[in-house]
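ARCHIVE CARD
Drawer: 12
Card no.: 0347
Subject: one protein chain, sequence and derived structure
Cross-reference: see card 0346
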Amino acid sequence: MKSRESLVRLKEFQVKEKQRQLNQLQMMMAEFERMTKELENQITFEEKKSGIFDPSHFAYPTFAKAARQRADNLQVSVRELKVQQDAAELALEEVQAEFAKAAALEERDSGVRMRA
């Protein structure tokens, strides 16, 4: 019976760990999106300051060019994190199902022990 209790604790730990990983991914995505918006604001400011809005123009501000590249890289990272988030959500659902099954078995076993 101890093995069932430890199995339940293990599954509970796994659920908490998957939830923590999922939360961490969501926080990273939110932070990257915030940084992207900040960079876009800086790009807009630089373009207005220089009066040049075409990135292919020879006098386009270097800072705006670099900020645009950084914002694009952050958007790629957000898309990659979204894929990881989807996978983490599936893994969390699987672990939650395993936990529910283990908890039900433990509950059933403890009910049998109480009756005995």
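Annotation on reverse: The radius of gyration is 25 Å. The mean pLDDT is 92.
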